[in-house]
Structures are given as C-alpha cells and as structure tokens.
Amino acid sequence: MSIINLLTDFGYSDTFVGTIKGVIIKINPQAKIIDLCHNIKPQAITDAAFCLLNSFAYFPKGTIHLAIVDPGVGTKRKAILVETKDYFFIAPDNGLLYPALKQQDIKNIVEITNPKFFLKPLSTTFHGRDIFAPVAAHLSLAIKSQNFGKKITKIKELKLPQPQRQKNELIGKIIYIDHFGNLITNISKKFFDRAIKSSEFTICFADKKIEKISSSYLEKKERSPGALFNSFDNLEIFIWKENAQKILGLNKEDIIRINIK
Amino acid sequence: MSIINLLTDFGYSDTFVGTIKGVIIKINPQAKIIDLCHNIKPQAITDAAFCLLNSFAYFPKGTIHLAIVDPGVGTKRKAILVETKDYFFIAPDNGLLYPALKQQDIKNIVEITNPKFFLKPLSTTFHGRDIFAPVAAHLSLAIKSQNFGKKITKIKELKLPQPQRQKNELIGKIIYIDHFGNLITNISKKFFDRAIKSSEFTICFADKKIEKISSSYLEKKERSPGALFNSFDNLEIFIWKENAQKILGLNKEDIIRINIK
Amino acid sequence: MSIINLLTDFGYSDTFVGTIKGVIIKINPQAKIIDLCHNIKPQAITDAAFCLLNSFAYFPKGTIHLAIVDPGVGTKRKAILVETKDYFFIAPDNGLLYPALKQQDIKNIVEITNPKFFLKPLSTTFHGRDIFAPVAAHLSLAIKSQNFGKKITKIKELKLPQPQRQKNELIGKIIYIDHFGNLITNISKKFFDRAIKSSEFTICFADKKIEKISSSYLEKKERSPGALFNSFDNLEIFIWKENAQKILGLNKEDIIRINIK
C-alpha cells in the first residue's frame, strides 16, 4: 500500500482537492491519501515549506509527499520529483521542498517532463489535477523515478528566515500563526540555548516582557502572555485558552527580541 | 473495493459529514470514501450541480457519487439513484444531478423508497445520515439498483445558465467564484471559439477591458486582470497571485460582455 | 481493519491533524481514519462532548474514538483510555467523554501512562501527536487496554446543561448552533413530551412565539422561524433555507421558554 500525503493551498470550498483524489484512485485504487493540510494561504510558498518541514518525518517510510502551492502554474517553472533515503517528494520547483530536503539524504532529483503520465488535454491552470496527481499515483504503483523525466542536480532554494544575534540581543520574528492564535517565531530551541546558556533574559514584543520559558500552556493561568518551545521546537508566544494574535495584535513578520543580561 | 464520493453543503463545523462516514463504514467497512467537497453554500443546488458536472468524470468507473444539498429534506421530494454507463449517482431529486447526467448514458433511474435500507428511527432533518448514506453503502456492497425502489423515467431538470449571443456581442455571467477569488463565467471555450473565430474581441466587465486570452495566470504579472480558459474550459477572470473578486468587487451573477469587432 | 475516529479542535489551517494521521499510519498502516470533526471551537470541551454524544453510536463496533480538546495539555491532567461494550475512547480526562460514556456499559478505564507507546521526545504542547495518536494506533493493533497504564475507576464528570420545569413553563437554552445557523436547544423530545402531553404550548424566544412543532424544515416556507425535533432529538429553532442565528440574532446560552397552557 502506498501513502500519498497532500499539502496544498486549494482550500476546502471547491472540488480541487476532491478531483485530485479521484485522479489518484483512478490510477491506483489502493493508494492511501492523507490530507496534511489544504489551507495554506493562497500562493504562500514559505508557509507551505515551513509546514512540510515540521511534519514530513512523522509519516511512514516510502510516503509520497505531494505539495502544491504553485503561483507559476502553466509557465516554464519546473515540476520536480525528489527521492530521498526515506521519502518521495513531488512539487513545483519554487523552493517549497527546499527546507525539508536540506534535512535529508537526496538520492535522485527528476524534472517531471514525460507526458505519458499526464492527463490529456493538459490545462494551464490545474497541474495538480493534470500532472502532479497522476505522477504521484503512478509513482505509488512503483514506477521508477527516472521514468518521469530527466535527472537534474539543482532545485530552487528557499531559506526560511533565520534569527540574528547582535551583541546581547537575539532578534527573531513571527513566521507562522496557528489556528489557536499562537505566535510561532523563527527562534529555535537550539539557537536559544546556545545563546542564552544559563543567563537571565527578557523576551520583548509589543509592550510586553517575559522573563521565563513556560513548560506548558497552563502554567500561565491568568490572561497574560507566556513563551514556550512548541512541538516544532520553535519559541512560541501564547495566552492560555485565548487567541494571542487577537489579544496582542501581533502579526506575521513582527519582531521578537530577547535581551540577554 | 467501492468508492463513495461525497459532495454536500454540510460544512466542516459539525459532525454531519463524519457521522455519514460512520454509517457507511458500519455497513461496508471496505468502502473508500472521498470528500469531493462539503463547503457548497447552504442550499446552493446550482453550485453543487456545477461542481459535480466538472469533476465526476475524474473518478474511477463504478464510483458512487453521493451528493446532498437538500433544502427539501423531510418533505415529499424524491430521493433518487441513477445508474449510468460508468457511475452511480445518489441525491435528492432537486436538479442537482441533471447537468452531470445530461453528459452520460443513463441505464436506470430508481426512486429510493425501500425502508429496508434506511436507518430507524428516520429523522426528518438528516436524510444524509438516515437514507442517503445507508443506501450508498448498501449499493457499494453490490446490491442492485432496483432493490432500492421503483423505476422512474424522469428527474427534475436544472439548467445551468447559458451565455447568449446578440449580434456582435456575447453576454455571459459569473457563475462560480473559487477559493482564490477567480471569477468563473458560463462562457465555455467551445461557445467562445464558435462565435469569435479569428475576430478581434474585447472582454468587458466593471470598467475593465481585456483584448486577449492569456495562456496562464503568470502571463499577467502586473496587478491587472487577465482572462483565460480554466481547467473546466470556462472563461475565467483572474489577477495573478491576487483575489480578483475582492480587487474587482465583482460577484456571482455579474455580467461579462464580449464585443466582437 | 481498525477504525480510528478523530474529533478535535485543531482546525483545518495547520498540519496538526495531518501529522496525527501520519503518526497513526506509521504505526498501523491498515488503520482507517475518519474525521468526525476538527472545527470544535478552541478549548470548547462541552461542544466536543455534545458532538461525540450525538454521533459515536453511528460507528462500527470496535471503533476507537479519539477526541482531543485539551486546554490542559502538558500538565498533570490525565490521559485516559476507556473500553466500553462496543467501543474504545481515548481523550484527555477533562469531562469530554463523560456524556457519551454515561450511555454505555464501561468495561475498563485506564490512565495512559506507559511511555513505551509515546513518541520521543515528548512535547508539552502536542500530546495529540506524541501520546494520543500513537496510543490509538497501538490499540488499533489489538494491544490490550491494560498495557497502556493502570486501571482507574473514576473520570472527570461533565454534565451538559439540562432544561428545567417551573410550574407551567419549561426553561431551556441554546447549546449548539450548526453550520446552517440552526439553533439547537437542550430540550429533548422526551423531556418535552413528558411535560407537554397533549396540552397546547407556546415556544418563546427573542420576541417570537411558535405554537406548533413542524415536521420538516420546508413546512415553514415563509421567512419565519419554526421549531422541530432534529436528528439528535433536540428541539431546534430554524428558518427554512436561511440562517436563523443571523436573522434572529440569537446565540449560545440564550434562553428558550415553553409556556404550557
């Protein structure tokens, strides 16, 4: 049985995702299709890259991760298939896969060009249906990567924004806001620990200051913001049982500073 | 293995869809259930008909398409099962199936009346759970259509709005707006090509004019609207990487005119 | 084949639900995962309890109901596994399971403590991924309940709000509002029938009065509110083809009175 894991910005209002599933099971009725998420903001390649990075490794070996956030659909941007030690990845070549692939041993990169595996007629607006889905489905039938096109050696790079250290200050920013309104920064636990060691520190944002990392959401019972390292190991600002984004009025790209004493 | 493809206006906030799936797999644990879409606007039969029309054929032969948008639930409107050359369709008889069925060879139409296949007690507000889901599940176990009720010959008609030609003008309208804000008209490529041939033309809407069909979204890089034939082969107004609906302030039912020179 | 039925407040915007599915199928590739609903309002334990109560019994015997609405994640609140005559339930011990369990024969309650079944490292913010999903997956492989921790005898209670009778008046309230804007009260058909018998009555809310129970939505064709017993057997205020919540301006917790003549 083959698992195909879908990540798109297609939303839940139309039949785009459902149609893709129809195409897949028409080719491989045994395919097991998982919805990683379809509410990536339209064309938000960086959000999709961040989401894929933080979840791909929780899937079984052999999973085909099919990620479609594709503002360049219908143009000459490449469609790629990447085979790593444990997984397959299929996506438009726009950087989406780059952060997840950087963590893995890459075995093969193929530019998807073989029209034998495409639906006909080929639309210019829905390669999810006409190229990506049928390629993923055929791949799930154990067709070898090299059948889908020619080998290439490079893919488009995309670097997720990194935090900076300036003297006694760490400067990060909010890079993702989840459904609960938690504000996820680009400050990783590793980066934080290396800089802070056993020093005292103050996390500053808006007009708030936090001097302690909480061990859980519930530790901050009153309606004041806390900070903890979340399930991605990123520093996250939260308010217990509340929507921190709404209450604090913060947004993506807003700066979080950590002063080291 | 049997595929049941669900299209409803039940949304994602309640347990309606999940409960239907429970009912189905209780009867046929091997059923493979696909979510075509559950965000059809409440009671929007025409939207559902348009969505089904544009996606049913991407599914494997033998798929049971179960479509529930049912403002008449609990009344004497019929529940129908239609067997075509390649598929099964189950829905309330309110026109929802009509556009998709017009494209197919119909083998059987059955009015679903056999209470043997219904859940008891039968509610008056949730026939999705009590009638449609168990009938689809039993059908997926290869029970013959005729067991579910008596043959009928007619179903309710529903015609999707058609574009008109008046002298040197084509008059269409926006009939669907997708998650990205793309404005999908009822002007098909076939209708357009037949009328325009090699003439020059101007597509007019709001205070905008477009004189060319784009081959992809990206062709219009600046923030100005473009027009192309989309993956349904309908003329679509778009703005690359933007929400055309919001920027142009257009809505469903708004008129699109094409002047032929 | 084992069925795992998911009910969460994780929403559809992030990869939380998809990641949980990855974890499950990595442990049991044969698991059949159903999405009961993921749009429970953040931390709304009572809503989740109401949704589970009204849907669990539609699933096949042996289904593992995994319900995660967990404001206490990362604290000492227990994680529990409950085995009933027909089902398994896994959830944080915060009352969520209580109303559904009250209707069933309980065979075993286990506090989930065996770290052998947890992902490592264990986060403090996403026990859905690190504890609940892997436990459900291992349970679906027929591991016995007692392997997951020690037996306990009590779980946290949560009582859904009950209607009251005061002389010739029944006093209920709106406890749930569905996707269509239907206003679902806590007045069950049983409670109503016992109190009303064959008397005349008036249902009062806002400045409206209803003197009759409709048998279906369509019975009230004009744009005026009706009342019926819905598919959960709760009294529901509706407006045919309209959003009663928006039109009537009512909300959860608002009072509905029934005067008995």
Nutshell version of this structure?
The structure is a homotrimer of 261-residue chains. The first copy, chain A, has 261 residues and is an alpha+beta fold.
Give me the count of strands of chain A.
Answer: 15
Mean pLDDT of chain A: 96
The general outline of chain A is: elongated
Largest sheet of chain A: 8 strands, antiparallel
Please give the share of residues in helix of chain A. 10-25%
DSSP helical segment count of chain A: 6
State which percent range the strand residues of chain A make up. 25-35%
Low-confidence stretches of chain A: none
Q: Structural class of the helix and strand makeup of chain A? A: alpha+beta
Give the topology string of chain A: H per helix, E per strand. EHEHEEEHEHEEEEHEEEEHE
Give the N-to-C terminal Cα separation of chain A.
55 Å
Radius of gyration from the alpha-carbon trace of chain A, in angstroms: 21 Å
Query: Assembly type of the shown chains?
Result: homotrimer
> Largest contact between protein chains?
A-B, 29 and 34 residues
Report on this structure.
3 copies of one chain form a homotrimer. Chain A has 261 residues and is an alpha+beta fold. Helices cover 20% and strands 30% of the residues of chain A. In chain A, strands 8, 9, 10, 11, 12, 13, 14 and 15 form an 8-stranded antiparallel β-sheet that branches. In chain A, α1 (16-27) runs parallel beside α4. The radius of gyration of chain A is 21 Å and the shape is elongated. The A-B interface holds A 10-19, 21-23, 25-26, 29, 42-43, 71-75, 123-126, 129-130 and B 1, 3, 5, 7, 12, 32, 34-39, 51, 54-55, 58-60, 63, 178-180, 215-219, 228, 230-231, 236, 240-241, 243.
